Amino acid sequence: MKRIFTFLFLIFLVSSMQAQFTLTPEFATVTVDPNDLETIAHGEVQNVSTSLKKYRWERITECITQGWESQICDNNLCYSPTTSIAPKTFQLNAFEKGLLDLHVRPYDLQGGGKFKIRVWEDANPTVEAFMYITFNECTVLGSKDVNVADLKLFPNPATNQFQLSKADGVKKIEMYSIVGSHIKTFIPNDGEKYDVADLNNGIYMVRLVGAGNKVLKTIRLSIR
């Protein structure tokens, strides 16, 4: 009997460690009328733990029509369209719910957008959840129809340097810490190697920026 209670307690303990917060909806498809000023995909974060928690988010733009604009609004405020990683945390009390909305503005242009929203606990970035949002159909991103699937960093993990698989359409490479602090900016060229030998080991967010300061893709880079 004692073994059964111990086993049940361990299951409860593991479940409690994993169930820190919920992010809903996991998937959403939203229809956009280009004549509307903006369209909002409503999201919600809920702290399901018994203590106050602080969270951060990242907007990963997988695809967006040139001329469209997107931005995130959380419990703190609505950030500028150029903000892809939350510069500060938002907090939720035990069992409290908070908004995490994604706004798009089509500016009378037919098109679409596809986004992945990552949310994590500030004190423990490995506790994370994702929300996938699609506005209409989207097949192009940026002024040169950049195929974001071709944009990769290697080697990853990196030691002293890393490279970008394809520099076409990428105007700059921005590096941020896991909490959103700007570290470095590189101007990309085909075949160029980017020096990170002076950085501490850890996880960094690398933002690939295209024409019009639009974020094409954000990649997690590990430095060892």
Task: Walk me through the topology.
Elements lengths: L1 H17 L2 E4 L2 E4 L8 E3 L2 E4 L5 E12 L4 E5 L16 E3 L4 E3 L1 E5 L7 E9 L2 E12 L17 E2 L6 E4 L7 E6 L4 E5 L6 E3 L6 E8 L5 E9 L1
Shape summary: flat
Alpha carbon gap, first and last residue: 47 Å
> How many DSSP-defined strands?
18
Rg calc: 19 Å
Strand content: over 45%
**Quaternary assembly:** single chain
Strand order of the largest sheet: 2-11-10-5-7
Low confidence ranges: 5-17, 140-144
Number of helices: 1
The largest sheet, given as strand count, sense and whether it forms a barrel, is: 5 strands, mixed
Q: Helical content, roughly?
A: under 10%
Q: Pairing-aware structural class of the strands and helices?
A: mainly beta
Mean pLDDT: 85
One letter per element, helices H and strands E, the order comes to HEEEEEEEEEEEEEEEEEE
Description:
The chain is 8% helix and 45% strand. It has one helix and 18 strands. It has a five-stranded mixed sheet with strand order 2-11-10-5-7, with no helix packed on it. A four-stranded antiparallel sheet has the order 15-14-17-18, with no helix packed on it. The protein has a three-stranded antiparallel sheet with strand order 1-4-8, with no helix packed on it. It is flat, with a radius of gyration of 19 Å.
